[in-house]
Amino acid sequence: MLREDSLVQPFLFDDLDIRGSIVQINDAWRSMIAKRGYSPAVQSILGELTAVTALMSANLKQPGRLTFQMQGHGPLSLMVVDCTETLNLRGYAKTDAPLPSGNLGDLVGDGRLQLTLDIAGLDQPYQSLVPIEGDTVAAVFEHYLAQSEQQPAALWLVANGDTAAGLFLQKLPGADLRDADGWSRVTQLAATVKADELRALAPEDVLARLFHEEIVRVFPPRPVLHRWPADPEKIKALLRSLGREEVESVLAAEGVVEIHDDLSNHTYRFDADAVHELFSAPDAPPTQH
């Protein structure tokens, strides 16, 4: 029976100054990839990127909208995952050729990882662009976090067509003073986690199985969502901004104006009557010549 809950469960090793989170995305993940027709290889890699995006969003010091874009020259040329401060996720993958099996390096190829963080009150979003270094999504983000936050981090990620899940650990600045062996011990224990455990066990059961001899403080979980209903008014505003002449030229060439929102996975179609109504509405901008 498929699990329906989707959440991020934060926790802390009080005696060790090591923090962590478990993410399990079930119903939200299935909704996000519904009707996309992704192969198992794409589901696996995009699911891992989705899991780590939820983890990173939940751990932000200042709540904001976080977007990761992974782009390369392989058959899996683009992946984008976007997450709001309420952990409302959306994302998609673009493949340019039949996708073989392989690791991240084989499928994405030589590429880059872009982070965009939009925090309310800032004049413009913060952006960071780094090369993709590592053959797994976990390895890429471990390297990225070590460079950007100057603190070691460890990730274990799993995903298929039903669930995207992960375990995240990060060493805090005072960890070595609390227990010089703590980070090594905890990461060795975490490395024994099995994919099925991350996908199927409740977070508290995963923590009990891995760290039953450690003191772990568990915080309230945060739900993860995928709620992106169609927004036709936004698309109408976009078409109006293009102008009647340009929209009607597309209509004449194609017989219909069609726009697909890749991130939210909605398609909008405007036939001749809809285009006429669009530019005849009282709030429509005047036709420009």
UniProtKB/TrEMBL annotation:
**One Pfam family named in its UniProt record:** HSP33
Per the record, the GO terms for biological process are: protein refolding
Q: Which Gene3D superfamilies match?
A: helix hairpin bin, Hsp33 domain, HSP33 redox switch-like
rRNA-binding recorded as keyword: no
Ordered alphabetically, the record's keywords are: Chaperone, Cytoplasm, Disulfide bond, Redox-active center, Zinc
**GO annotation, cellular component aspect:** cytoplasm
InterPro entries tied to this protein: Heat_shock_Hsp33, Heat_shock_Hsp33_C, Heat_shock_Hsp33_N, Hsp33_helix_hairpin_bin_dom_sf
UniProt keyword Disulfide bond present: yes
One Gene Ontology molecular-function label: protein folding chaperone
- Its recorded name reads Hsp33 family molecular chaperone HslO
Q: Supply the source organism for this entry.
A: Denitromonas iodatirespirans
